[in-house]
Every structure is written in structure tokens, then in C-alpha cells.
Specification:
The complex is a heterodimer. By secondary structure, chain A is mostly helical. Chain A contains 15 helices and two strands. By secondary structure, chain B is mainly α. In chain B, about 45% of the residues are buried. Classes of the chains: A mainly alpha, B mainly alpha.
């Protein structure tokens, strides 16, 4: 039993459960929608998930530190519009320059959030609720009531969403989807193995303890917000490529989907625990619901109601079931530590494990 | 520092100063600003938000938050519209709308108070969920309400005052008494400053929180119905995004987001400031979206400025100590 507990953590059980729910949802939609199991469905859902997932990576970084970023929807919209306008004005711009422009612009907006939260000591919910409105308002001022249209954009970005990374039989995996998955994996590695990542967990589990232990908490929280902004910038670029037409209300309300993905994916809203893989699974579930419910014409309006129920359930299950499991696991680890010869391996294990029960 | 000057450094004093500045600016922009009908009109334009501000003050002083208020407003309005569409008398629709608001508050309260989940997550889910249910009820239609309801929402009822304004003043007096002079009001503060201390002192923390969320649901529903009556028609997105304005008014009034401190006097002043700011910006032809931006900026500043002042005070104190 103890070896089993050592191999499987409660978080992994949770992610397994999420996979089951996704499979169940897909099966359910398959019985309700004609021609559901087609390569086209996969492409449509995966492209939509890609944007949510990329933004959710940044959100996870922020939530791990016991903060929240509600302004991501406005950052995605503003970046999409800004880069779209620049590309329309200068069609010869190199693709790499356009991507860097998006990342830089997003990072700048994220830095404003991070500066106010980390150095101005204003609670994140207040800052980002404010910048959610401010960035959108600035975008409306900047746009002058114009719209970025597909016709004005250069050829390469319009065709970008159709570019395949690879195909497995009939199923095409788009480049944008591949980029999202690679980003999730990179950041999962970063938060598991890099000091920067472990410190984010430490700050989230106990901000005071982290500060007293000498961690540069302010700088790390600032960095988390900057990264969240930069990844929202990437999301904005993908949004521009996918839709081509960008208005001032672009990506409005995206923050709700992203926060939902992160919370459903098991990232604790009080910080200190959660994984990128979990957030990705959350994004897959949200994206699948979103795209599939839209195809069931009658029930289109059920989308938001179900989304809300899912968030509530996810948080409730987290509190009721997972905390109990974690206590069970922690107890078994304590008995391991009590035995002297096993203490070294137990210490190594707790250093490696991604869970910091709060 | 003279005592008189120090009073102005208190949050309420600062608010009063800002209010005087905005009022003078408004009078300069338009000579009719101080006329009674203009002032009533000013109140009437955001009366529904101000009604919800009252209960939000309680919730935030208690150390929690309710992001779902605007969605509950929309849900109650949509329940009313759904009834009207099905030829059910509007009176029944109003009662049903209030009941649904109470139920929504009970859901929030149950998960926050008894399950012990973070109110941020619970009411964020509520924000999405209740709006979703509202959309299911009216989909993408626009439903007109009966004429008598529309008239009730717009016309003066007693003297120059419309119904919503009378309800607001009534609720304001009740809120003031409950918060300052009843045991329940003091419990709200105690729980806000330390939940554990309150629990160990024998305060029934869960029941106080539950009652606050029930009240929040009921009052939000009432405000939503008043809003629907004033507009005369209901759409699925009615009152969407109102939570930003409502929370801003409360926090600008000096209520701490961490709970435990704040007064209704401060909140009342901040409501007046935001109303006269919106009026002034409207007179200066500034668009609604830019106005929202300015409100967002105010929200951030309302915490940033006191933080800065406090840092300055500690710095001064430290220097004084070093000097002595």
C-alpha cells in the first residue's frame, strides 16, 4: 500500500478523474450530435482549446502564488487588435517580429498588473478587475471604432491556422495546437524542476513563510504576472490568426473560461498546488463543452450555466475529497519518515512531489 | 500636526474633499447640476447599483466577496420576463424573481459558509451559472414588460421621488442601524477582522455568513427587478458587468478588501463621488467605455493611495524614533 501511495499522488488521481469526465462528455456528445467523431470536430475543438490553454498557463503561474489575473481577456483582445493593426499597416513585417511584438505588448500590460500587485501591495483581484476595464477602455480609445479585417492582413497569418504540425491518418494536428502543447510541457518542466517554479509554490502555500525564508517574493510575483501577460500576448496572436477579423470586443469574457479551466484543472485558488497538465485538461474540458454545446442548436444557452456548475463542483470536490486524500497520504509519509533507514528516500520523495497541500 | 488637518487625512475626509472638487467642477460645467430634479435623475440612473452597494458593503466588511450580484440581478429580471412572456401575471413573476434571488444567495452561502470554499471561486462560478440560467430563460429575445410596471419604474411615486429611490433610502437607514447598532452588525465586523477569534468567542460565524449571502441574493434580485421595470424591457445580458461598479463604490468608500474595517458613511460619500464623476464625464462628452476605465483606475487608486500614505507614515515614524 505504501509503495502504491508513493507512486500515485492525489493530484494524479484527480487528473485521471478529469480525463474520465472528458471521455464521458465526448461520448455523450457523440450520441447527441450527428457526425461528431470526425477529424473536423477534432480540429475545431483543439484549435479553440489551444488559445484557452496558452492563456491558462500564465493564469496557473499567477494562481500558484495565491493571486489571480482577471485582465487576461482584455490583454488577449488588446494584443490581437494591436498586432493586427500593425500588420495591416505594414504587410511586409517578418512573422517573428509580429510574434515578438505580441509577446512584448502582452508582457508590458502584465508588468503593469505585476508592479501594482507586487510593489504597490494592492490585492490582485482589485488590480486586475480594474485593468480588465482599463485595458478594454484603452483599446476602444485606440481603435477609433475601426475593425481589423482578414483582407487587410498578410497572407501568412491568414493561412497560419490551417498549417499542420503533423497528421496521424485523417486527424490533423495544427501547428497552433502543437505550440500550445509544447508550451504547456515546457512550463510544466519549469515549475517542477526550476527553482523559480518551486518558489512560486512556496509563496502560494505560505506567503509569510516564503518571505521570512528569504525568497524574493515581490520579484517572483511580479515575474508571474509578466509571464501571464506575455502568454496572453501569445494567446492574442493566436486569436488574431484564428479569427482574422478583430473588433474591440475581441476575447471579452475569455478570463472566465481561463479561470474556469485552471480551477477545474485542479489548481488551488488559494495557491500552492496545481499543475500545468491539470490546467491543460481543464482547458480541454471547457473547450470541448464550449464547441460541442454550440453545435447542439437547441441547447446553446446551456453553455454558461453548465460551466458555472462545473467550476463549483471542481472546487467543492477539491475541498471535500482531495484534502482528505492528502491527509491520508501525508500520514503514510510520516510513518515512512519515522523509520530511520527510509528517511532519505522519503525526503527525496517529498522534494520531488508536486503537491504542497495548503 | 493639528487635529483639524489630521481629520482630512482620514479616508472620509479625503472623500469629502474629492466630492467637493467634483461637485464644483460639475456646477461649473452645468448650472442646473444642483437642481433637485437633476439630482434625482442622477441617482435614478444608477439606483439599482447603489442598492446592491449597501449589501456588498456588509459582505466585504465580513471578509468575503460576492461577484455574482450582477448575474442575480439579471436572473431575477429574466424570471420576471419569462413569466410575462407566458401570460403569467407580473405580480407572480416578481415574487418568483425574488424567490430565485434568495435561492441563488442560498447556493452561494451554502458553499461559502458551510462547505468553507473561497467566496471568490464560489461567486465566480455563480456569476457564470446564474447568467447562464438567465440566458436559458430568455435566450436572445427582448421581452417587453407591462405598462404599469414600466410606469412604476420611471415615474415619481411620492413627491418627486420614484419607487427605487424610496426603497434605497429605506434600505440605507436599515443598513446603517443594523451595521452600527445591532449585535449582528458588530458580528459582521468581528468576523471580518478575525474569523477564528469570532468563532472562539461564540459567534455563529457560518450562520452570519449564510444570512449575508441570503440578503445579498434577495437585494440583488430586488435591484434587478427595479432595473427591469425602469428599462421596460428585458434582454439576457441585462445588468451584465455591474459588479465592477458596485465593488468599486464599496472599496473607494474605504472598506478594506480583507474585511473588518469600513463605514457606510464612507461608502455613501464614494457613491456620491462616482455619481457626480459620471455626470461630469457625461457632460464633457466622454463615452461610457472610457467612464468605465476611469472607474477601474479609481478602484486601483483607492487601495494604492492609502497604501502609499501608510508607507509614508511608517517612514516618518521611524525617522522620528531615530531622531529621538
Amino acid at each position: 500500500m505504501n509503495t502504491l501511495r508513493r507512486l500515485i499522488r492525489p493530484e494524479q488521481l484527480r487528473e485521471l478523474g478529469l480525463l474520465l469526465i472528458i471521455a464521458l462528455a465526448v461520448w455523450l456528445f457523440g450520441t447527441q450530435i450527428d457526425n461528431y467523431y470526425t477529424p473536423r470536430t477534432f480540429t475545431r475543438i483543439s484549435t479553440s482549446v489551444a488559445i484557452i490553454a496558452v492563456v491558462a498557463i500564465g493564469q496557473t503561474l499567477v494562481v500558484l502564488t495565491r493571486n489571480i489575473d482577471l485582465s487576461v481577456g482584455s490583454i488577449v483582445g488588446f494584443t490581437a487588435y494591436f498586432v493586427g493593426t500593425e500588420l495591416a499597416r505594414n504587410n511586409d513585417m517578418l512573422p517573428i517580429v509580429a510574434v515578438l511584438l505580441a509577446v512584448g505588448f502582452g508582457a508590458l500590460l502584465g508588468a503593469v498588473n505585476g508592479g501594482l500587485v507586487a510593489y504597490g501591495r494592492v490585492p490582485a483581484i482589485i488590480v486586475t478587475l480594474g485593468t480588465l476595464a482599463i485595458y478594454r477602455g484603452l483599446l476602444i480609445q485606440y481603435s477609433d471604432a475601426k475593425t481589423v479585417t482578414t483582407a487587410s492582413l498578410p497572407e501568412w497569418i491568414v493561412t497560419l491556422p490551417q498549417v499542420n504540425a503533423f497528421s496521424a491518418g485523417q486527424v490533423d494536428v495544427r501547428l497552433m495546437v502543437m505550440v500550445a502543447v509544447v508550451l504547456v510541457l515546457i512550463f510544466q518542466m519549469a515549475i517542477t524542476f526550476l527553482p523559480f517554479g518551486r518558489r512560486l509554490y512556496a509563496i502560494g502555500s505560505n506567503p509569510d513563510a516564503a518571505r521570512m525564508a528569504g525568497l524574493p517574493s515581490r520579484r517572483l510575483v511580479f515575474m508571474a504576472f509578466v509571464l501571464s501577460g506575455a502568454l496572453s500576448g501569445v494567446g492574442g496572436f493566436m486569436f488574431l490568426a484564428r479569427f482574422g477579423t478583430v473588433t474591440v470586443v475581441a476575447a471579452q469574457g475569455l478570463e472566465l473560461q481561463v479561470v474556469a479551466a485552471v480551477v477545474v484543472g485542479g489548481v488551488n485558488i488559494f495557491g500552492g498546488s496545481g499543475t500545468m497538465i491539470g490546467a491543460l485538461l481543464g482547458a480541454v474540458l471547457i473547450g470541448t463543452l464550449e464547441q460541442s454545446l454550440t453545435r447542439m442548436r437547441i441547447n446553446e444557452f446551456w453553455k454558461d450555466a453548465l460551466l458555472g456548475v462545473f467550476i463549483l463542483l471542481a472546487v467543492a470536490i477539491d475541498a471535500l475529497v482531495l484534502n482528505r486524500l492528502r491527509k491520508l497520504w501525508a500520514r503514510s509519509e510520516m510513518t515512512v519518515i519515522a523509520a530511520p533507514e527510509a528517511s532519505a528516500s522519503a525526503a527525496a520523495l517529498s522534494a520531488k512531489g508536486g503537491s504542497h497541500a495548503s | 500636526m493639528p487635529a483639524r488637518l489630521r481629520w482630512f487625512l482620514r479616508w472620509e475626509g479625503l472623500l469629502l474633499l474629492i466630492l467637493i472638487v467634483t461637485t464644483v467642477a460639475n456646477i461649473a460645467l452645468s448650472p442646473v447640476f444642483l437642481r433637485v430634479d437633476n439630482l434625482i435623475n442622477l441617482f435614478q440612473l444608477s439606483i439599482e447599483k447603489i442598492i446592491v452597494v449597501l449589501i456588498m458593503t456588509f459582505v466585504i466588511i465580513n471578509g468575503e466577496i460576492d461577484l455574482s450580484v450582477a448575474s442575480i440581478m439579471g436572473l431575477a429580471a429574466c424570471v420576471l420576463a419569462w413569466c410575462v412572456e407566458r401570460q403569467i401575471p407580473a405580480e407572480v413573476g416578481i415574487v418568483l424573481g425574488l424567490a430565485v434571488g434568495l435561492l441563488a444567495g442560498a447556493i452561494n452561502g451554502f458553499f461559502v459558509a458551510y462547505v468553507g470554499l473561497p467566496s471568490l471561486a464560489v461567486t465566480l462560478a455563480g456569476l457564470i451559472m446564474f447568467r447562464g440560467v438567465a440566458r436559458i430563460l430568455v435566450e436572445d429575445r427582448s421581452i417587453n414588460l407591462p405598462d404599469w410596471l414600466d410606469r412604476l419604474g420611471q415615474q415619481a411615486l411620492i413627491g418627486p421621488f420614484p419607487l427605487a429611490l424610496l426603497i434605497f433610502f429605506g434600505l440605507f437607514v436599515i443598513a446603517l442601524i443594523v451595521l452600527q447598532y445591532t449585535a449582528f452588525g458588530r458580528y459582521v465586523y468581528v468576523i471580518g477582522s478575525s474569523k477564528d477569534v469570532a468563532a472562539y468567542s461564540g459567534v455563529r460565524v457560518q450562520w452570519v455568513k449564510m444570512r449575508l449571502y441570503l440578503a445579498s441574493g434577495l437585494i440583488s434580485a430586488l435591484a434587478g427587478l427595479l432595473f427591469a421595470a425602469r428599462l421596460g424591457a428585458v434582454r439576457g445580458n441585462i445588468a451584465e458587468g455591474f459588479e465592477l461598479d458596485i465593488i468599486t463604490m464599496v472599496l473607494l468608500g474605504g472598506v478594506s478588501i480583507f474585511g473588518g474595517t469600513g463605514t457606510l458613511t464612507g461608502v455613501g460619500l464614494s457613491v456620491l463621488i462616482i455619481l457626480s464623476l459620471r455626470n461630469g464625464m457625461g457632460l464633457a462628452n466622454i463615452s461610457g467605455n472610457t467612464q468605465t476605465s476611469v472607474i477601474g483606475l479609481l478602484l486601483i487608486l483607492s487601495v494604492l493611495v492609502p497604501n502609499g500614505l501608510r508607507a509614508l507614515q511608517t517612514y516618518r515614524k521611524r525617522r522620528q524614533l531615530r531622531g529621538a
